[in-house]
Amino acid sequence: MEKDSSKWSPVKKKLASMSKTELVDLVKDLFDYSAENRSFLTARFGSAEAALETYRKRVVDPFYPKRGFGKLNFVDARRAIREYRKASEDLTGTLDLMLTYVESGTRFTNEFGDIDERFYDSLESVLNEAIKLFKTPKGKETYPLFRKRLLKLAEEAEDIGWGYGDCVMEGVEELDEHLMGEEEQ
Questions:
Q1: Same domain for 124 and 40?
Q2: CA dist., res. 97 & res. 82, Å (int)
Q3: Given Cys at both, which of 4, 43, 104, 121 links 88, Cβ 3.0 to 4.6 Å?
Q4: 151 in a domain, yes or no?
Q5: What is the model's pLDDT at position 22?
Q6: Residue 1 pLDDT
Q7: Tens digit of pLDDT for each residue in 96-128?
Q8: Which superkingdom (predicted)?
Q9: CB of 37 closer than 8 Å to CB of 31
């Protein structure tokens, strides 16, 4: 979604002229306006742990809702990851949500059987984005926190079709060799 600067400019000007109390009231109104705003503001300013759990629920729900069967709505789950990342700027939490998404999809397949190519493409896309993030300087620092989960994921994905199992195993193996090899040098 592109920002239209012609619309932001008057808003920015008005915000700059507001008192602290008026700004707090405005943020409160935004908080009350929608669940998305509440999630965003909680992730940005509230308890990181509580915010992460709120977003984790949104990531897991399409696979394993509290009631009924999962609707496999990838769009909502992936949107939750993006929103958390933008709101919190917390790389560790973002990687946690990304892995939760891929783990949930893998577990879903192992429990309910083969899905379709689009399903696996979505899981692979999120995994590949996580792998890229792990290769960044900050990502490298967090890798030890996630290594066991990634190795377990590769093991659980091993026999899944559509090339998904191979993609997961190769991606995780290459990442582990890359990062653990750096550690040994």
A1: no
A2: 10
A3: 43
A4: yes
A5: 83
A6: 45
A7: 999 999 999 999 999 999 899 999 999 999 999
A8: Bacteria
A9: yes
Rounded to whole angstroms, what are the CA distances from 129 to 63, 78, 124, 125, 139?
20, 12, 9, 6, 11
Q: Are 101 and 123 in contact (CB under 8 A)?
A: yes
Please tell me whether residues 100 and 34 are part of one structural domain. Answer: no
Residue pointed to by tokens 């091993």: 158
- Say if residue 185's pLDDT is above 70: no
Q: What is the pTM of this model?
A: 0.82
- The residue-averaged pLDDT of 73-90 equals 94
Where does the chain have alpha helices with state H?
Answer: 5-17, 20-33, 35-45, 48-60, 74-88, 91-112, 117-134, 137-157, 164-184
Q: Is residue 2 part of a domain?
A: no
Total domain count for the chain? 2
Is 167 inside any structural domain? yes
Residue 172: give the domain boundaries: 48-184
29 burial type by CB count under 10 A (0-12 exposed, 13-18 middle, 19+ buried): exposed
Alpha-carbon gap, residue 155 to 182, rounded angstroms: 23
Residue 135: predicted pLDDT? 97
